[in-house]
Amino acid sequence: MIQLKNIDKYIDKRFQRTFILKGIDLNIEEGEFVTIMGPSGAGKSTLLNILGFLDDASEGEYKFLGEPVHNISEKKKSEYHKSHIGFVFQAYHLLDELTVYENIEMPLLYRKVSGKQRKAMVADILDRFNIVAKKDLFPPQLSGGQQQVVGVARAIIGNPKLILADEPTGNLHSEQSEQIMEMFKKLNDEGVTIIQVTHSDKMAAYGNRIINLKDGALVKEDPYEETE
Amino acid sequence: MLKNYLKIAFRNLFKNKVYSSINIFGLAVSMSVCLLIILFVFDQRSFDQFHEQKEDLYRVIMDYTPSSESSGTWYATSPAELASILEQDYSGIQKATHVRASFGGEAKYSDETILRIDGLYTEPDFLELFEFNLIEGNRETALLNPGSLILKESAARKFFGSEEPLGKSLTVLGDREYTVTGIIKDDARSHFKFDALASFSSIQTEESTPGWTQHISYSYTYVLLNDRIGKADVESQLPAVIQNNFREIDNSSIAGMKLQPLTQINLGRVLSNEIGTVIPGVVIWFLVAFVLIIILIASFNYITLTISRSVKRGKEVGVRKVLGAERASIVKQFITESLLITFIALLGAFFILKLLMPEFNSLYVISQSSTQIETSVETNLSILTVFLGFLAGIYPSLYLSKFKPASVLKGISDTGKSSSGLLRKMVIVFQFSFAIIFIISAIFLYRQFEFMANTNYGFDDEHIVNVALQDVPYERFRQVISMNPSVKEVAASSKIPALGSVSGLWVSSDSIPERIRANSFQVDEHYLDVMNIPIVAGRNFNPQFGSDRFSSVILNRNAVKDLNLESPEEALGALVKVEEASYRVIGVTENFISSSPLQNDDPAIFLNDPDYFYYAVVKTNPGSTGTFLPFLKEQWYDMGSQYSIQYQIFNDQLQANPIVSVFSDFIKILSVITFFTILISCLGLLGMAMNSTESRTKEIALRKVLGASVRDVTLLLTKDYLVLIFIAIAIGGLSAFFLNNLWIKNISNSIDFDPAVFAIGFTGTIFLALSTVSWQAIRAALKNPVESLRSE
Fold first, then answer.
1. Spatial distance between the Cα atoms of B474 and B614, rounded to a whole number of angstroms
2. Dist CA B567 CA B588 (whole Å)
3. Alpha helices (H) in B46-187, listed in sequence order
4. What are the angstrom distances between the C-alpha of B65 and each of B251, B274, B577?
5. Which residues of A fall within a CB distance of 8 Å from B7?
6. What is the reported pLDDT for B211?
7. Which of B8, B405, B409 sits opposite A98 (nearest CB)?
């Protein structure tokens, strides 16, 4: 599903080039549940952003579903965001001015799904995630865990093939974290590819493959070793 | 989707009440001014739109250039004969009609009702060219016979009440008897202003003056072109028309003629001898400029406030993009939002408009032009709203939609901060520059207004009643009125000074190469005494010397100077030419204001021809005007006048001076604009100050923890704004200096160019700006640092 070949990401500052990612080669098959781990500043989020078209790689080749996608147009990117990729953020990033229902509904609006169908789909998700009672509340009225549940619900309502989660449990306590990871596990079982970034071994254990990142490069060994 | 946009827009509006109210209020104020001007312009443009053939209707205007002058003046009038010549001999012209504005006077109905009516003398085809709605009478014949009169509905009602007006007789005093042959509906919006139309044949039969056909300043010529033949074609024939027919007039002083489209008469060019009050197009440009400034100031507020809050909205943009929104749909969303805000502002604008409207209608200029605007425009409102919504919304939406989700979602807030910071600074400078220009100009104008209202005219205006003599001989009036013990003295004059209108005469002397135009007054020997205009050299007119009537002139000091006659003493005995006749200078008076309170350097001359005694100037004993007036009214008809009495108390007349009124109109308009500009600018400043203190809470807290005092922090937060205000003061101050210098230098009876006005303007602005900003700054400085540091 995803093929990265020699991906570099760097920032040019005056006479110095700082590499965030260097020479990343990575293949991820459909149906995998991949965890990216590494210390702060290793480039995990950048890698995730590149995978989700939120950021462009400086060099290298990126094929998504067999199609070369480095330097694709803005329009094409939003096409992919609409239909193929769902995002889950550490800070949830729900819109405070919209209710739970409206937050979940939003991706469908951009996909121009008809009103009737929207209603059915949102109702279904609310039901599945057990948050029907909360549908008319605004995000600040919910706990962090509940907000993240809404975040996940929003990410998957468009039936994406890929979910990108940037430290989805970073702000949650363990019980809530487990709930979210169980959800991911279940989705993965249903065939959705999941890539998550995390610091926690416990959360990583839910996945079936771990990628270690250190100073912008993929490493075999445990990246935390040195820092500990 | 639209529902979603509106939902989030509304919720944002309510969540940020202060920002929303600043935005909405600012836009509402500017829109109300804008609406007012739009209403006015549309009302004015609707003039003469109801004529079916308006595209082919023109008025002939004339360039009158006397042989002694190098450049001429354009007149709305044309030779009396022109219409009939054009109609007969030129194929491009389907019809031509001839209009005179001189009809009018007091009209009497059945010995009881005496009312003043004014109107036009017109030919029968007037009603063929212009589609005035004739609700009674026959269109073809109503203006045919001598003594035919068409009345406006309202005028007819005044005379006849509910009686049938058709066939009734009215006597116009000093003119003749007329029979009502038609009634015109009142509703027409036209540059023709009249209560009545009289048949042209009524004067033609009476006119016995030889050569009347050559008169050029009474008649207006309107033509209907053949719709196949263009305006340019007809215009190209006009030089030949002049050549063949009007060569004799004042040694070919008619230098050219043009066709002026009927619909462009109102709001058109400024012409001499205009038919009634016409609002010149320039006025509109002034108003439009004011409106544009105010709209820009309000939209800039919207733009900068929206952008300064982009940290918050940026996150939303990021989320939406991640969920699949394209840039276009983000732009659409923010434009929708600004449209919504402008729409809400529109409702507010209506409210403010209701308050402004009566004030606007009571402006002198507006009340004079008999156009009262009403709140009945729906069509163009939507255009205005959409236009403003786009104007205010386009930049912020483009700016916000550019945000990259990867960076805004991470919380990097300074995306493009430097550029928007510069924009904000420029906006503050722009707004306050205008605020300063307006404040200073308004103060200067107000001072000039006060100055004119209390100006020293150079003559007495107390205890004086001016009576229009009309058909009463001056000697008889003087004889009767002088008997009253309240009356101190009675004098005669041809003109009341300082009311804005003058009658000028050409005066020349051997000492100057070019003749000068002097304001002339035909007065008797009592006039200078009654008006208390001191004679500085020589003597007054004296009836004992029979020669004074035809050969003596009294000058004022300005006339002596302009005629280059050295000193008043040396001027005595000098010969001057007034028009074509020679006069000897017998006296010189002190200067006085002869034309308008704006000018105190006009030359003026006094002559002594009783043929021109149009007014009696009655000086009463102090405090006895009240007893004199009933006496005057009582005696008036005994003096054998067929007209009703017309008198004015000089004091009141000077107070109601049209020039002063126009001036006060301008001050009123400018004050409103100034107030709104300052208000909107300060609101914008407040919004920005709030935002910058908000986004600097953490910095402020850190500084306080590290030992900064409340004063230090306040200073830190206000310093940046102060610099901007000083830049605005420099720009605005300079512009105000040049603008006000321009008009102050051009009127002679003006206030001094007082630097104190600038000082007032500057300190006022600094005070307002500082109190706006420091309020926020002090609030932020007083906040407990622990709270702000914890909250992050």
1. 8
2. 10
3. 82-89, 126-129, 153-160
4. 10, 17, 22
5. 97-98, 102
6. 64
7. B8
Q: Which residue has the tokens 């003295």?
A: B489
pLDDT greater than 90 at residue B590 = yes
Q: Please say whether the beta carbons of B206 and B156 come within 8 A.
A: no
Model pLDDT, residue B414: 46
Round to whole Å and give the CA distance between B298 and B304: 10
User: Which pLDDT band holds residue A221 (cuts at 50, 70, 90)?
Assistant: low
Contact B392, B343 (CB under 8 A): no
Q: What is the pLDDT of residue B423?
A: 81
Check residue B377 and give its pLDDT: 57
Alpha carbon distances (Å) from B6 to A116, B34, B327, B340: 20, 26, 18, 8
Q: What is the pLDDT of residue A227?
A: 45
The pLDDT confidence band at residue B416, using thresholds 50, 70 and 90, is very low
Tokens standing for B409? 């979602």
Q: Report how far residue B105's alpha carbon sits from residue B661's, in angstroms, rounded to the nearest whole number.
A: 26
Mean of per-residue pLDDT scores for chain B:
86
pLDDT recorded at residue A127: 92
Q: Which run of H or E residues covers position B660?
A: helix B658-695
Q: B113 and B105 in contact (C-beta within 8 Å)? A: no
Distance from C-alpha of A98 to C-alpha of B433, rounded to nearest angstrom: 41
CA gap B543, B564 in Å, rounded: 29
- pLDDT tens for residues A53-95? 888 888 889 998 888 887 788 888 888 888 889 999 888 889 8
Element of type H or E holding A198: none
The residue to which tokens 């300052």 are assigned? B678
Beta-carbon contacts of residue B26 (< 8 Å; ≥ 6 apart): B297, B298, B301, B302, B345, B679, B680, B683, B684
Which residues in chain A are closer than 8 Å to B411, comparing Cβ atoms?
91
What's the complex ipTM? 0.88
Nearest Cα of chain A lies from the Cα of B404 at a distance, in angstroms, of 7
For the beta sheet containing B615-620, the strands, ordered from the edge strand earlier in sequence to the opposite edge, are B487-493, B615-620, B464-468, B647-649
pLDDT of residue B372: 56
Q: Can you read off the two tokens belonging to residue B435?
A: 């605020």
A16-49 pLDDT, tens digit each:
888 889 899 999 999 999 999 988 888 888 899 8
Average pLDDT of chain A is 88
Handedness of CA B491, B495, B498, B499 (dihedral sign): positive
Surface-to-core class of residue A73, CB atoms within 10 Å of its CB (0-12 exposed, 13-18 middle, 19+ buried): exposed
Q: Beta A193-197 vs A162-166: how paired, if at all? A: parallel
Are B580 and B526 in contact by the 8 Å Cβ rule? The answer is: no
Residue indicated by tokens 């005057």: B632
Sign of the alpha-carbon torsion through B12, B15, B16, B22: positive
Q: What 3-state class would DSSP assign to B138?
A: coil
Interface A–B counts its CB contacts (< 8 A) at 67
Q: What is the pLDDT of residues B241-270, one digit of tens each?
A: 888 888 776 666 788 899 999 988 888 888
Interchain contact, B1 vs A89, CB within 8 Å: no
- Nearest CB among B8, B322, B411 relative to A81 is that of B322
B354: CB partners within 8 A, 6+ apart? B375
Question: Which residues, 6 or more positions from B686, have their beta carbon under 8 angstroms from its beta carbon?
Answer: B22, B772, B773, B775, B776
B390 vs B387: CA distance, rounded Å: 5
Residue to substitute from A53, A90, A106, interface B, most B β-carbons within 10 A: A106
